[in-house]
Amino acid sequence: MNQEDADSDGVGDACDNCPDDSNVGQEDSDSDSVGNVCDNCPNDYNPDQEDNDSDGMGNICDICPNDPENDIDGDTICGNIDNCPYDYNKNQIDIDLDGIGNVCDNCVFNANQDQVDSDSDNFGDICDNCPNDYNSDQRDSDGDGIGDACDIVPTSSSTTSIYNPPPPPRTTTTTIRKTTSSTSSSIYPTTTTTIKPITTTTVPVPPSTTTITSSSTTTISTLCPIEQIYGEDSEEVKLLRALRDTALSQTPEGKELIKLYYEWSPVIMKAMEEDEEFEQEVKEIIDGVLPLIREIVE
Fold it and tell me: Looking at CB atoms within 10 Å, which of 39, 106, 126, 194 has the fewest?
């Protein structure tokens, strides 16, 4: 007769509900024939003991049956479907629709699912104004789209040429001097006219160019892109301001997003002024997320 008892609990393997774990009392709270000490869901009936993510908790009682870290950021979104599994973002906002949530996306407004960041400055290559030079501040003093860290001329200068027309040509002047001489043998004086030309040479003077070098300063508009698109007192602007004040400003990530928006606003404004099609594209992106923002704010 086979009397094997692998766990030495006095209950033979053939009838032990946990043959590899000592459990003399053979407690089985959920009556699934798997003892409590070895049941991956001791209070939930699951005789099959399925555990998809191999985290030691059976599927039936696992809050995230396909996420072995079981929602590590605590935002109630399981890691296998969370667009920022290690950053709390219950609202899952993803403006550029690249599958990476805004709070962990290194290019919030540019789709870049691969998140490549060659210089490790937390700005993805696709939106980094110096993708190969670390510049976490993204400073661009001359507003040319190239960051100071990699811009050959980080501040702009302009050269203005003023055309000075040539003076009128100098002319030749002839002066006639009249002299009178007397001859003793003549009763009447003889008048002799001597012509002595006084000549000045005409010298052509080439046009001159005066070069004035001046430094230019970028002027930042008082309007921001959303005010430009929808109008300063529009319902859309009020909604986005509410998002800023009630949601974004409450977290470090949100504050960083606000900071980036205002830093990039002058560049975006300039681009919209020069390209109406670009302005329309920006509007379409914002229109697409307004319903989600309305749910968050309201």
Answer: 194
3-state secondary structure of 292: helix
Across the strands, what pairs with 177? 194
Q: What is the dihedral of CA 144, 145, 151, 155, to 10 degrees?
A: 30
Query: pLDDT band at 222, cuts 50/70/90?
Result: low
* Alpha carbon distance 9, 11 (integer Å): 5
**Cα dihedral value 224, 226, 232, 237, nearest 10:** -130
CA distance 144 to 219: 13
Q: Is the pLDDT of residue 207 over 50?
A: no
> How far, in Å, CA of 271 to CA of 278, rounded?
7
Dist. CA 148–CA 211, nearest whole Å: 27
What's the 3-state SS for 220-280?
Answer: CCCCCHHHHHHCCCCHHHHHHHHHHHHCHHHCHHHHHHHHHHHHHHHHHHHHHHHCHHHHH
pLDDT digits (tens, 9 = 90+) for 10-39: 999 899 999 999 999 999 999 999 999 999
Euclidean distance between CA atoms 105 and 115, whole angstroms? 7
Torsion of CA 226, 248, 113, 51, to 10 degrees: -150
Per-residue tokens: 298 = 């309201």
Structure tokens at 132: 């190969």
For residues 111 and 127, give the distance between their C-alpha atoms in angstroms, rounded to a whole number: 9
Record the tokens describing residue 152, joined without a space.
């050959």
236 near 286, Cβ under 8 Å?
A: yes
